[in-house]
Amino acid sequence: MEVVAESVAGIDVHQKQITITVLIGSSSVQKPKRFSNRFGTTTAALKACGEWLTEMNVEKIAMESTGQYWRPVWQVLEVFNFDMILCNPRIIKNIPGKKTDQKDSEWLADLTRCGLVSASFIPPREIQELRESTRSRKKLTQSRTRIRNEVHNILQRSNIKLTSFVSDIFAGSGLKLLNLVVNGEVITLRKVSSCMTKRMKSSPEQILEALDGVLGRNDLSLMAIQMKLLDDYDRAITELDNLIDEQLAEQSNLLHRLQDIPGISRKTAQIVIAEVGPDVSPFVDAHHLASWAGLCPGNYESAGKKHGSATLHGNGYLKSALVTAAMGAKITKKSGLKDYFWRLSSRMDKQKAVIALAHKILRIIYSLIQDGTTYREYKKDQRKAITLAANN
């Protein structure tokens, strides 16, 4: 195979130590010289590793994205101005056989020397920090949802049917009624009426009957604990929202332009900027970005025949955000994206049409970021006029 770099290093990263293999040799040399070394993962040890690699005149360094262990290694070594490549472990799996750290680092170095390692996208430091904030918010939101579901379960097994008459028991009148239960108060028709608003469709008598359940002592204690956890999660999520707003202060223009796209909410726009960044130049085109996000169907060819397959693995945070945006866009009134969805759903499964719509939204996002333009809505009558003008 053709040699693209004469001095490369492969790093196998773990929590306590890293294993390094350096290959040095020109393209005319069949067997390059091999040098191996091991370093700890403390800052001082990683700096010593960078100095050793500098003495070896290493041009390229490749490492796997192993959990979070690769990040401090990357941050320390990037100061030494190496040409660094972060690669997906799923793509560069080693050949079957006995697996060791040394063999893994050698395999990485061999692939890098021949230019067979594709680099993963590493955003700038400020975008990495924004990404950490948005991902933390999503995890906290999911945890809050689990706590809420547990509260629902306690109410159901206690035969308290409050959720049958109140759409949201964690806000407004629903929360006031729920607190009556949690505080162990004697629930009367007068107390129920004082918690209700005029907009509620149910009568106080119906709510009182729904609250007539048997909440045991243990379930009451569990309910109180869950409600305290919900308060903590609410405060933490609010703090994260404020932090994300601060981190996106310089990207306010892009944030507003993304929200012009049907289905893109403020939080979805924040996730898009956190995962893609304000610059799409690392991606060759919109299709490359869609493939990275996992919104492109896979394909393979065998015996001269091309076969399709399901969408590939990609950036799960960006993919889920865009699918959510597509679900919103397909019900937006007077939207060209809604028309696009229903045209697709007439000839394919609706789930596939949602993925295709998410793909289209991502291509629009790519264009908006690349050109610095705003979204322009094309409705059905405009599309017909353009088609007639083209035919004439």
UniProtKB/TrEMBL annotation:
Residues 256-340 form the Transposase IS116/IS110/IS902 C-terminal domain. It holds the Pfam family DEDD_Tnp_IS110. Residues 9-157 form the Transposase IS110-like N-terminal domain. It comes from the Bacteria. NCBIfam families: transpos_IS110. PANTHER family: TRANSPOSASE FOR INSERTION SEQUENCE ELEMENT IS1111A, TRANSPOSASE-RELATED. This is IS110 family transposase. It comes from Levilactobacillus lanxiensis.
